[in-house]
Amino acid sequence: MKILVIQQKMIGDVLTSSILFEALREKYPNAQLDYLINSHTFPVVENNPFITNFIHFSPEVEKSKRKLFKLAKSIKKNKYDVVIDVYSKLSSNIITLFSGAKTKISYHKSYTTFVYTHNIKRLTSTSNPAGLAIVNRLQLLEPLGIDIENIKPKIYITQQEKETSKAFLKSYNIDFKKPLFMISVLGSGENKTYPFHHMAKVIDLIVSQTQGQILFNYIPKQEPEAKAIFDLCKTNTQNHIYFNVYGKSLRDFLAITTHCNALIGNEGGAVNMAKALNIKTFTIFSPWIDKDTWSVFEDDSNNVSVHLKDYKPDLYANKTEKEMKPQAMSLYQEFNPDFFEKQLISFLKHIY
């Protein structure tokens, strides 16, 4: 048995879809289970014991139709029995169509039903605490006779990585007897980033409540934006921020995060990764992102999330979150951190 799972694009998507492999491995212990992903997302699934091989969808392939068809032809040579296309966009439609697999599974779209043998309709609501992102992915396994309620994504960090990151933090005088918080200060784009002055107030509150140590999650090219948030924080807060202590690579970030008491900040890949590392999270959703889909494994204790819709539901009357996307920046300004101050304080008390 050979099975290919396709999930391109974002880190959070690739991590979330990796749950399929644990279920597939239980059903087919001796199968070849391969994962087609974008190259930059590999670190979140590295060392996953349930995956046999990785196929990298490189930036070059993404930019060239010729290279895309070449990749599709090479995949056909692997003679997969099953292709599960979680991504379900043009490039993955083409790869699936060329694969020659007898069983081809994806989400239902009227214009691509001819490509797949099984077209699964997404649920729009669920009572499952795993959240829609998990539930809808697990639905893709039903044509294979796999019926499982939920599986939590996991990231596999080696002991050596943990020890190296701990030594790195000690070299910057991080005190492991005191609370240590990773702050997701920036989202993947402007309309997914909590306004800087609001974020500074959140960080001020964390420090005033815990006297904890603060790390910022950012990459070098984002340093000016991260520094702008730092400058907006109170002087006392700044004394608790280790601004120059950050992971130089995604695996470094993951290893450092394993030593944190919690990750707090913008919804996105960092939050999903923290959850997969069993690190507690407090998530601030962008006003246009659907909380029901991405608030996975929320329990109002270890994993808490807040959304403007929670406090001002009238703004969303007869509209979906995605329909509010053009107004994201103005809605963000209304999303005052005072709305969720008590929830954040309660979360922090649970941590320390």
TrEMBL record:
Domain of life: Bacteria
Signal peptide start and end residues: none
UniProt keyword S-adenosyl-L-methionine, yes or no: no
Keywords of this entry: Glycosyltransferase, Transferase
Pfam family name, one: Glyco_transf_9
Protein name per its UniProtKB record: Glycosyltransferase family 9 protein
Originating organism: Corallibacter vietnamensis
